[in-house]
Amino acid sequence: MGTLTYDNTIVRFDDRVLTHLQIAIVRLFRRELSFPMSWKRAVEAGSGRGSLWMVHTTPVYFDFEGSRIPTISDEWVARLEDSAMSSTGLIVSGEHGELVGVGASTPVPAYAFAR
């Protein structure tokens, strides 16, 4: 499982999901777009859902567990980007549009980001 760190939150995603999110988010941020991103937590992570307001001026860190870049699906990336532009925002989904359970989101202490 890789992690996405944004503001004071860390969210764990499967590396392949995280790779596709990275591509979609970077493309959106390059256009200086802001959007909500939401995900379903896996049962083992306590169920429920989480959401972030993603702003292109806030740094985001993608940390992958594996060293190999997975096969990229252009259709999946496009679906994630399209989702971000909808009224619901970017809904984290699998390659075929299914909701995927992700690891827990964890608040990060503010001092962790102190310079």
Automatic annotation (TrEMBL):
Sorted UniProt keywords: Ligase
The DUF7882 domain, residue ranges: 1-93
Molecular function GO labels: ligase activity
Protein name stated in the entry: ATP-dependent DNA ligase
Species annotation: Antiquaquibacter soli
